[in-house]
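Chain A, query sequence.
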Amino acid sequence: MLEALKVIILGIVEGITEWLPISSTGHLILVEEFIKLDLSEAFVSMFNVVIQLGAILAVVVLYFHKLNPFSPKKNDKQKKLTLQLWVKVLIASVPAAIIGLAFDDFIDAHFMNYIVVAIMLIIYGILFIVIENRHEGVEPVIKSLSQLQIRDVLIIGCFQVLALIPGTSRSGATIVGALLIGTARGVAAEFTFFLAIPVMFGASFLKIIKFGLAFTAPEFFLLLLGCIVSFAVSVFAIKFLMGYIKKHDFKFFGYYRIVLGILVLVYFGISSLF
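Chain A, predicted structure.
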């Protein structure tokens, strides 16, 4: 019962932080310092990635019509644009897929710690503030998903590679990349949502294969529970973010990341002295 409560809390954290540009993996690593699952290290490592499947399903459900190229409610032009969107998403996924497969074990071994998380929280927090200040009053060049060119999506895909480092935030990295090339905030956020689908399905599949399919009944239940909770919370988080950026910029998230990063360094720095 206690483990189920822990998983519910972790699912809530995942559902909120996966879509807000504040790093889901980073927050899960930090939360686990206080809420540790009494399960094998291999299962916990796999759980932290596969729980993202619930969050991804929220995108699929909320944007099913926009993502469905075979919808009978779309005309031929709209179906063609949807297929083109998927091609762009897949192209943008290539850099992270290549680097992720090559360095997954190295990243787990060397970067999954509070120092890296805190530093990346602060660096990208500063980037959000600098970029938003630089673009204040400037009209976006790319105002729709259809205006994204192959060069644009490759640039965004390269920024997504940086999110392999914990604390960066996949959504944060890709949004930063999109903003740098003059993409409107709403378009940047939506493309980030869609880009998560193949990347996170791929990452989850890789983790499950490495873990093996020999789940115990309690492990399977906890993994399923985490995915369900992250799905439900993600629905609200996505709707909140899309509503928020219609009236605000991303600077608030930048300040949040800086403050959190500093608190993490101070807390764990003091803890290491005792």
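DSSP finds twelve helices and no strands in the chain. Residues 76-110 form the longest helix (35 residues).
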